[in-house]
Specification:
The strands form 2 sheets. This protein has a 7-stranded antiparallel beta sheet with strand order 5-4-1-2-3-7-6, with helices on one face. A 6-stranded antiparallel β-barrel has the order 8-9-10-13-12-11. The chain has 4 helices and 13 strands. It is of the alpha+beta class.
Length: 303
Amino acid sequence: MPSNIRPIVHQHVVLKPHHKWILAGSGGIVIIFMIVISVLTYAGFVKQELNYDLLNKKLGDLQVETQKNVNELSSSLLETREGLNSLSSNFGDISAEFSHLKASVDADFSDIIEDSVKAVVTIRTDVAQGTGFLITADGYMVTNAHVLADSSGKLATGIHAINYEGERIELEFFGYVGALDIAVLKATGNYNYLELGDSEDVQIGERVIAIGNPLGLQFSVSQGIVSAVHRTGANGYDAYIQTDAALNPGNSGGPLINKDGKVIGINNFKISQGESLGFALEADYIRNTVNEIAMEEIGQNLV
């Protein structure tokens, strides 16, 4: 064979190894890609685990802090409660006092007026007119002494009462104490009457009503509040309730009534130079004066 002719077999030997290298290179890229994905996935998982642990730690710290704050708040509430209990023991039941005052402010007197007016009368004489109210079922009643006297202080005549039904009732003079302007009268028969309250139970700010005959307008009712207690009168006694309930001539001797329907004072006078400045003799003084008169006349207390 001539020397310038090369066998074709030699060319196949050169190409075959080159083809295997290309196939091997593609497989390596896939393997490397899978390894990278695996590493990244694992790294993401590890990072997620770290974040989860960090979050759990923060939640744990927050729970501890919250519980600490709750404990401190509970301690403060307990201390406050103990303080309120201490105040209650020294000054009475605060809740009860506020409830009582609220009831006074919101009181509806319609039922009380309906019952009370049956025990109130118009007092008439030949010289004056005023108001009185019954204090016993057997006809004893009180009014202001000045309703029963003329300008010279002489006892008036023709003393009688007109009840809420318009009936005339003849009255007997029973006794009086001039210093406190209290007079006691007696009627024959059985009557509705009003109960005297306790002066120590009267609260500044509680609502009251006055029943009377101002300027001849029989059985008029006015409403107000207790403005002050134990005011000093012209007689020197610290014995008067100050009220802003309207009092006018003809109200003298009428009852000042609280939300329980009890008489806490007998309407006595007003200061004409000011508005809503009325004064009523306190119930304890009424009771003591009436019993003082009764002991002298019949030897026993009336109320």
